[in-house]
Amino acid sequence: MTITRRSILNTALSLGLGLGLGLGAASSAFADKPLVLGFSQVGAESEWRTANTASIKDAAKQAGVTLKFADAQQKQENQVKAIRSFIAQKVDVIAFSPVVESGWDTVLREAKAAKIPVILTDRAVNVSDKSLYVTFIGSDFVEEGRRAGRWLLERAKTMPAGDINIVELQGTVGSAPAIDRKAGFAETIAANPHLKIIRSQTGDFTRAKGKEVMEAFLKTDGKKINVLYAHNDDMAIGAIQAIEEAGLKPGVDILVISVDGVKGAFEAMMAGKLNVTVECSPLLGPQLMKVAKQVVAGETVPKRITTEEGVFPAEVAAKEFPNRKY
What we know:
alpha/beta, six-stranded parallel β-sheet, 326 residues, 12 helices
């Protein structure tokens, strides 16, 4: 039999009522027991992820939640081990941001068998049984790709006639944001047959890899490239360095579009090196703590909780920069 915070409380209530105690007296000993949350993070591959981790840790502290934190270092096997460790420790709730979408059915069934609810944050999973997790908190990655595509459709109207060649820096292979941001962007730019993706390769969401892959793109197709679409700001910032080292002007010779909205992107926009960033907020901590408490209390929560975000072109960067929290 698995003992959870909820089962302890139910036992306390039944014992208290059996002894003729009031409901409040029976549960008072457990009312202040902190909720225990096991959280498995993807890693620390970007400014965005660092801000996301800080948000979760700070929010747990402020909410009085005992946080058991594990860094997967971008490896799925590390996350599976962490989740199994949380199950063994009998935490109240498990939350994680999955490295990739697939391969979670077995370990999530183990969590369900242990009666520990699971919350997904930032990234979704592809499982056969949707009841294996309670809810997903995060962004609509397909819509982020569409927003990047819509910006380019408008900008293309002001560009010279003819084909506009795009190179794409994808996120981690198999991850939800990489799959969805690619799909949303491709779907949207299909409205203009002159917008053509000539190269697309993963940059693993890291600045170093983004630079490395962009260098390869430039060596192969340097004179053909009109636009860079990066699945996150860190890869874009790395690519900007590669563009400059190739003797070209990022933001002018090659338009640069990225996703996240971190401070580094706003600095690049103010320097004229990045043209637009599509926001993807990492500040999910307070929302996660609130939902975790609701789930443990037996409240019904929506299956998907989407964060509200915007699009920031270079023209508004200087004005918006003081408001950025990450």
